[in-house]
Amino acid sequence: MPWNRVWEHLFLVLAGSGFTIIFGLALGITAYLCPKISKAILWSVDVLQTIPSLATLGILMVLFGGGKTTVIVGMVLYSLLPIVRNTHTALNGVSPAVKEAAIGMGMSRLYRLVFVEFPVAFPIIFTGIRISAVTSISVAVFGTFVGGGGLGDTLYRGIYIQNMKLILFGTAALMVMAILMDSLLNVVEKRLFKHSMK
Amino acid sequence: MIEYRNVTKSYGGKQVVKNLNLTIADGEFVVLIGPSGCGKTTTLKMLNRLIEMDSGEILINGKNVAEYNPEKLRRNIGYVIQQIGLFPNMTVEENICVVPKLLKWDKERMHKRVLELLELVGMTYEESGKKYPNEMSGGQQQRIGVLRALAAEPPIILMDEPFGALDPITRDSLQDEVKQLQKRLGITTIFVTHDMNEAIKMADRIVFMSGGEILQADTPEEMLRAPANDTVREFMGKHVAKTRMDDPALHCGDVMKKKVLTAESSKKTLECLELMSAREVDSLVVVDSARKYLGIVTIEALRERGEAGRPITELLDTSAPTVQVDEPAQQAFGKLLASKALNYVIVLDEQQRVVGIITRTSMSKALASVVWGVKK
User: Fold this and answer.
1) Given an 8 Å threshold on Cβ–Cβ distance, is A102 in contact with B132?
2) How much is the average pLDDT of A28-36?
3) CA-nearest residue of chain A to B47?
4) pLDDT tens digits for A64-106?
5) A29, B77, B121, B246: which sits with the fewest CB atoms below 10 Å from its CB?
6) What is the pLDDT of residue A196?
7) If phi over 0 gives left and psi between -120 and 50 gives alpha, with beta otherwise, what is residue B166?
8) DSSP string over B115-134
9) Which residues of A touch B (CB under 8 A)?
10) Nearest CA in chain B to A100
11) Residue B372: its pLDDT value, please?
12) Distance (Å) from the C-alpha of residue A194 to the closest C-alpha of chain B?
């Protein structure tokens, strides 16, 4: 069985999710801090999501050529939405009383964001991260078409040579990966937000 | 000393504060009061620059607030708001230490300060220090809100209707605590409210505002004795004037006894007899587990129809007179005089929970306070 494909897939997912989190948070926070451009940011992210992932990869391949970079960039573009949207919504949803108290105590804009608004909003932001990470597992499957490797290769090959075992192996590996990822993040979430979950 | 000099603020062409002049001495407790939209909150928030004034100046010890960096200014002015606004991601200790941390106190000093402050309001660090705000009641939260404002020993504290969202009993005790603290620590306090009772209880000086102007600024006593004009008189009348027995402003809640001997409906006959003889009373108020009023049980009923081991709910007498806590006290006195069987009236809140009783003794006390002018 092609175990190396499993590791490859995991690498794609982790790299993709890592970049998604960084860019997603940056965009979400920018949208919150600059209401003037928030619409533009949210709209762009929405549009990215409506392009079929296969098409996104195709276009990216023209720009970056085949390979893992293309897959990772595609995954980032495709799974930004939940993180950006949740970050923006959650930060806007922090109670006005808490925001007013923070200003009234004499906190600077950055201090407020880092020590009050972001931590208070984090449970919802984290949900976005969780959704995005789990989706990215299935998005990475399309990587096979642009030479990115991963379990997409296994599935594709299984279909091509009509090998049921291979197809089932690929499918099961993807499912287990998704379930493990979700449970792991679930545990992290419970640990992080012990007091706010009560 | 705080001085407002010709301070003006408009929103969209409407002047909410008009050419305001006010001087507040060090250590003074000033209450800003008036109908909603009178500009009292705006006046308050211009001091710590949460709202910037259009013209005029506000001086703290001779220095214009506009010259300060707003963040540094705010760290030296305590601030308490109605919605409490504790930081839900921080423990009680961390909440209290927000401003000290901004001022870069060392850890030891901060911890010492937390212990000291909690002790001021009768809380212990072991019990509360590590709690999160959502694990506490509204009253406890606002206590911490006040401590958070006091933490860095600011010379000035601003309070914007701090007790408006609390239940009457909690509000009452917090008012006492804050007044005591303020006196002890000598902090200059500006307090916004629309509740005249609160103003009279707390203030060294009441500043009555209407339409963005100060109509009167006087001690509570002077304010009651000689309201400057009809607007003030009307507002005072609605809120105080507890000077006559039949005054509708004297509520049941003001005259009731808060200690009531209640029994939960799950209690059995013998338990109740035991309770009655221990406290030397001849009836018990029966409530459910949520303290909702169900009825009363009398010694007669117990003697005539009671059987050992049977629940007391079988003996309930539901005909006892009751009043609502916000009804005029006169109502209760009427019912009390009319009732032959029972020598008290049960006071309920909106949720029909038992909050107190009014006896003949409470009636005579209320009467005495009117005749002799004794404060309750």
Assistant:
1) no
2) 95
3) A104
4) 888 888 899 999 998 999 999 999 999 999 999 999 999 999 9
5) B246
6) 57
7) beta
8) HHHHHHTT--HHHHTT--GG
9) 95-108, 111, 116, 119-120, 122, 195-196, 198
10) B85
11) 54
12) 11
Q: Which residues of A touch B102 (CB under 8 A)?
A: 105-107, 111
Residue B191 near residue B179, CB atoms below 8 Å:
no
B308 contacts: CB under 8 Å, gap ≥ 6: B268, B269, B270
Cβ contacts (< 8 Å) between A97 and chain B: which residues? 81, 83-85
* % of chain A exceeding 70 in pLDDT: 97
Two tokens at A58? 């195709």
Out of A99, A106, A196, whose CB is closest to B74? A106
Reference A141, options A16, A26, A27, A22; nearest CA is A16
Write the ipTM. 0.82
Averaged pLDDT in 10-residue chunks for chain B of 376 residues: 95 92 96 92 95 95 94 96 93 96 96 93 91 92 94 95 88 90 92 90 93 92 84 72 52 80 82 80 84 86 80 82 83 79 83 86 72 47
Which residue is it, tokens 């916004």?
B192
> What is the value of pTM for the model shown?
0.71
The rounded mean pLDDT for chain A is 91
Q: Nearest CA to B69 among A108, A97, A33, A98?
A: A108
For chain B, the straight-line distance linking the first and the last C-alpha, in angstroms and rounded, comes to 34
The one-letter amino acid at B349: D
Are the Cβ atoms of B102 and A106 closer than 8 angstroms? yes
Strands B29-33 and B188-193: parallel
Residue written as token pair 């762009």: A44
A34 pLDDT tier (thresholds 50, 70, 90): very high
Distance CA A190, CA B309 (A): 48
B60 within 8 A of B5, measured Cβ to Cβ: no
User: Are B86 and A98 inside 8 Å of each other by CB?
Assistant: yes
Q: In terms of residue numbers, what domain contains A14?
A: 2-197
**Which residue in chain A is spatially nearest to B72 when comparing CA positions?**
A106
Q: Which CATH number does the domain housing residue A19 bear?
A: 1.10.3720.10
What is the count of structural domains for chain A?
1
B87·A95 Cβ contact <8 A: no
The Cβ of residue B147 has, within 10 Å, a number of other Cβ atoms equal to: 23
The residue among B89, B97, B131 with the most chain A CBs within 10 A of its CB, best to mutate, is B89
- Cβ within 8 Å, pair A101-B79: yes
Distance in angstroms (rounded) separating the CA atoms of residues A104 and B158: 10
